[in-house]
């Protein structure tokens, strides 16, 4: 019994412990030569990303989506559990039907719905985060000419969440209800990988916690199991850059010196 098989009950098939050779070829010399390009391209894909709320009515090929998920599935996860269960990818008439129903619910009976988890604390948010949240609102609503106190205007804007900002593709991500915070972190890696892989193909995305509230509607239309928690939505498509420029502002980001505390350097 090897160190690997010792962890398994008697009768468990031997795991394949061979080292995949591509783990080494990732660092081959050809890759090193391209390194400078890779830095520039990767940093640019990350630094220029933004949450896109305006899309062109241009379809996204299923093959492109498969490629994106194929890249993102290599994301790390604790003990390689890969807890991105499951990814519902929706388009066409089904997406429109779900969108219509969520908009209707959000407009008329929002109190009848709730998400299966709290995205934000139920109580007060610690002051520095509350301040950043307020700043977000200023940058978000100013180009839309919606005042901070204009609750109707704000509601009108947030309703766009529920038809997935008219994006041609929407995703719903669920996580098994037997898993805990660590797995939710893992799914975050997966989501960011999707975002960057999408950008590399000229697509933009926006992550959305808002649709999680209408999980009962999503469950009516999608084969979501009872053991799945509806965690997040995401819209994806080719950006309408004219509208993006007109109605969106770059959200401010914290400086490196504010984020990192170098210790022992
Ligand atoms: C997990 C997650 C959930 C989010 N949910 C929503 C949402 O429901 N609706 C929305 O308009 N934006 C949502 N956002 C986008 C944030 O508002 C946005 O990331 C933030 O304001 C920073 O702006 P940026 O993404 O353009 O840099 C979400 C972002 C994340 C990471």
TrEMBL record:
Residues 47-238 form the Nitroreductase domain. CDD domains: PnbA_NfnB-like (cd02136). Coiled coil: none annotated. Its cofactor is FMN. It comes from the Eukaryota. SUPFAM superfamilies: FMN-dependent nitroreductase-like. It holds the Pfam family Nitroreductase. The keyword Transport does not apply. Keywords: Flavoprotein, FMN, Oxidoreductase. One of its GO terms (molecular function) is oxidoreductase activity. InterPro entries: Nitroreductase, Nitroreductase-like. PANTHER family: NAD(P)H NITROREDUCTASE YDGI-RELATED, NITROREDUCTASE. Belongs to the nitroreductase family. This is Nitroreductase. It comes from Mycena sanguinolenta.
